Amino acid sequence: MFTPSSMLELMSKLPKRFTDFVDRYPDIGRAYGDLGRAVSDAGPLDAKTRQLVKVGIAIAAGLEGGTHSHVRKAVDAGATPDEIRHAALQCLTTIGFPAMMKGLSWIDDVLISPGSESATPPFDARS
Q1: Of 16, 55, 70, 117, which one's alpha carbon is 20 to 30 angstroms from that of 78?
Q2: What is the pLDDT of residues 92-115, one digit of tens each?
Q3: 53 and 26, same structural domain?
Q4: Nearest CA-CA partner of 51 in 79, 32, 25
């Protein structure tokens, strides 16, 4: 269960729109946080794998903000830029090339943004 202090720590990293919602509807915010924790704890996937799965889900759902969020969380969980981009590539045969490319651009919004600790070029020069 989320405690007030853990909720404050988590909220310091969340978008203002979300924190404003939780401030206005704290019971819903707590329930949402508890649901997220229960889903995370319901199986054997580690945090990095869960975030890579969520990157793919966000891309497939067409959620730019969700993709940005889960890329940051994947990096925090130890995923490399190559692992995150590989997760996006898994979308190709399901959602198509243009949608997958859009997802890669959303990933690169985070990974190659100025000051990003994981600033790496979007593609390496493999021959």
Answers
A1: 16
A2: 999 999 999 999 999 999 999 766
A3: no
A4: 79
